[in-house]
Amino acid sequence: MSSHPTFSPHDFARALDGLHPDLRILGPDALAGRHPGEDPANLNAGVMVQPASTEAASALISWCRANHVAIVPQGGLSGLVGGGASRAGEVLLSSARLNRIIAIHADEETVEVEAGVTLEALQAALAPHDLTTGIDLGSRGSATIGGMVSTNAGGILAFRNGVMRHQILGLEAVLPSGEVFSDMTRVVKVSAGPDLKQLLIGGEGAFGFVTKVVMKVEPIRPHRAVALLGVENAARALQVAARLRRHPALLLEAAEMMWPRYVRDHAALKGFDISWLEADAAVLLVEVSGETIEAATTLLEDELAALWDEADLKGGIVAQSSDQTRRFWDLREDSGFYFAEFPNAPSFDVSMPPSALDAYVAGLSAGLATIGNGLDAYVYGHIADGNLHIAIAAAGPSPSDLKALIEEAVYHGITASGGSFSAEHGVGLDKRSAYLAHVDPAKQALARQLKSLIDPDMLFNPGKVPF
Amino acid sequence: MSSHPTFSPHDFARALDGLHPDLRILGPDALAGRHPGEDPANLNAGVMVQPASTEAASALISWCRANHVAIVPQGGLSGLVGGGASRAGEVLLSSARLNRIIAIHADEETVEVEAGVTLEALQAALAPHDLTTGIDLGSRGSATIGGMVSTNAGGILAFRNGVMRHQILGLEAVLPSGEVFSDMTRVVKVSAGPDLKQLLIGGEGAFGFVTKVVMKVEPIRPHRAVALLGVENAARALQVAARLRRHPALLLEAAEMMWPRYVRDHAALKGFDISWLEADAAVLLVEVSGETIEAATTLLEDELAALWDEADLKGGIVAQSSDQTRRFWDLREDSGFYFAEFPNAPSFDVSMPPSALDAYVAGLSAGLATIGNGLDAYVYGHIADGNLHIAIAAAGPSPSDLKALIEEAVYHGITASGGSFSAEHGVGLDKRSAYLAHVDPAKQALARQLKSLIDPDMLFNPGKVPF
Questions:
Q1: ipTM, 2 decimals?
Q2: Which of A246, A335, B204, B348 has the fewest CB atoms within 10 Å, i.e. is most exposed?
């Protein structure tokens, strides 16, 4: 690489000036004071380029290739595994100005949208058409569609609608060569040669920069009812979810479980009343939609009455107002509360086949106990698709010295059971060792070969997923 | 390639004898008299190898690689684009003995299954668990799961459940290198590096031999009602389908449309009574499920009464017996009837965004009229996902001389409208010119590079999708 010039952030800003009229270049001064998002290293490159068109993105990428400059694609900076982290000498390629909703095909329930549109902005644009996205997640206000494509995001509705891979019909991207890859189909049935856009979906920015997509959407169901239920374990929670999924007049919109320590500590911190909950029970949040709010509420209450003994519920409370609904959801979605007490808590995002969840959580607790040091886990997640979020708390000093042992406890048995060490956050920087340890070697070798083929100079998001 | 030995089918049978105990080798004598399936060239290679294990498939593929022998993967031989066609000097690699249903996880609604299991056999095995596949298609008796993966099959339920790509959670395959690629996850949420199994799904046998998969399944809904409805056009059919999809107590199971000439000629051939249908109307077959057969029938009749004026129905008839239901479905599924009169009828399988369907069909008719020669089209298909099957009939001589002109008329405007020149059948041999003409050149170039990387000797299904 020594034959190529190296650039300081100020050099970049000068060199890129005038490259394409649709490029906005933000140097160190413009970036100073900006919040870096979920990873403190997101803005470390010190220079960000915001194209407002596919052509401008292509011009920037071609320039980077000619000058051997590495590119870190960025969306809403809400990623949790360092997938957007950057270093000096790299250029941040942001989708911030690719923020147009190109077309809403209401009758077809599809939308064409640029990559930088946030999930929440898309939901707001769809609402007047009585439509919404088939994927929803807590960081909807900042997460962009392009970022969600790149991490194959899942969220709350995946148990019903699948993940981003199942929602994307068409996709356009700029490849590391600078070429534009265009496959903007608007149909679900396409058997027209290998479906190469699948490499960009979940590609974590390694194979190109996504500029726009065609996405499925679905009818909005505004009439909701929400309950918090005490449950003994995941099996009971799944029993509740299964019954609600089969209800002829209700649609299950969410089934989010929080294990006892998560509930206890979060409720104490926020002053949330859990006097209705039996001691040491976990909490399941369920949300259903129906023909009216009253119908949804009444039918949910009827179902819960029937489930009370059948699923051995340990308490339950149905929201009686939109304010109470919001507070129920805050208990689940404001999930970073533990970082206040444990700022270095290692966090994980795994998935397991639902029937294996209770054994997994029991094994995790036992594994952490074996390590000692007072280690304990906050466990919560999207129970109906087996996706658990886990944060490791320690009573004593920071658990960072115990990293390898903790990872062993968290990842134990996941692959053999048919689960995944990363469910919806990706690999990025933080899960590289797990990728190396748990992904089939033949698959790793093939991924490396593909990366070398598509990005031979290794300029796209270098150092992330270990290629 | 001249430095490699060439084998006759008898040579193969001898050379492969004893390679692995789980390999069955069928030479020309054993294959003589076998029906070749949908393509007369399927068995032309004259030698078929049937592994009963992944290891045996790997041994065969490694041997082929060492001896530079081309491999044609085959499933149920029901493909319609020559994707399994073979030539002397090649070896057929059949999934026929990979026919085990490994595990049914009823509570999770997933199944682990080997590639050679037919769709119908899987449906039969699931039925005692009150489950069925989320994909269904007319050739269910012969189509195998592996073949359906390789063509990314769609069928009747794709409007609701997506295509095979959306149903497959995990996959194992033997790569052209002979290595086993294993990604048998049983969860929907996986963001653990690039999802390379997506290359095998819809890969038409170019990137390896699929040996087993994990598939989503769904509750069986046995209580059905079926109707045939006269409709003016696709817009009206979609109006009916949209209303039934939103019914709170019915689930739409199928929406299959047949344009007027298809209905008229097929009904005449089979002696099917269409006296209830207004002249020159198209026919929409709808199937719904409900809590009981009686409820499904009554609710469907109520909906159709409301739709009669609203959707300007041109006649309608609700099946009153299982025998009548079967005859309704035969009208749609026994779709090859036109080959009796037009044995060389070029046939196509395209998809269009639903709102563009009527303009497309009108343009097709106009295009064929411009060519002259009495050309006309049989049009039918899965209307709710915009998938049309098209066969070109000519009153005069065979239309084979007019191939280029006919393809121009059929494919006109499809890509620009966001549709696909191949919806669910694949590219194979027959759609190669359409692939070259209609797929984005950057995508074609990338596909060629991937093929060279994964199968550098071009031994897997050579000559199909033009790599």
A1: 0.95
A2: A246
